[in-house]
Write a structure and sequence with these properties.
With about 90 residues, the chain is mainly α. About 50% of the residues lie in helices and about 10% in strands. The protein has a two-stranded antiparallel ribbon with strand order 1-2. This is DUF3077 family protein.
Length: about 90
């Protein structure tokens, strides 16, 4: 299975249909999932670290909502990876 071209990072200042980046069509889906797993894992850890550094009593509901949502999406991607890649957490590693 291969990826389809999928634009992301909409730049409304450049127009309503302007995107700065895209996933290229024809990239192996397994490799794309491994890369997504790695990126999502890093983003999740960054959010957890940021939430842990917030002062007591600050409004953390939104950041924890983002953490839980990203954690669910990360688990879904991880569930699609071969067991050896998912177990090591080295998706996308060269």
């Amino acid at each position: 299975m291969k990826t389809k071209q999928t634009p992301f990072y909409r730049d409304l200042s450049a127009g309503p249909d302007a995107f700065a980046f895209s996933v290229n069509a024809g990239y192996p889906s397994g490799h794309a999932l491994e890369l997504a797993d790695t990126i999502m894992g890093a983003a999740l850890q960054s959010l957890v670290d940021a939430a842990g550094n917030l002062p007591p009593g600050s409004e953390t509901t939104a950041i924890y909502c983002a953490i839980y949502s990203l954690e669910m999406a990360h688990a879904l991607v991880n569930s699609c990876l071969p067991l050896d890649v998912a177990a090591t957490g080295n998706g996308g590693a060269a």
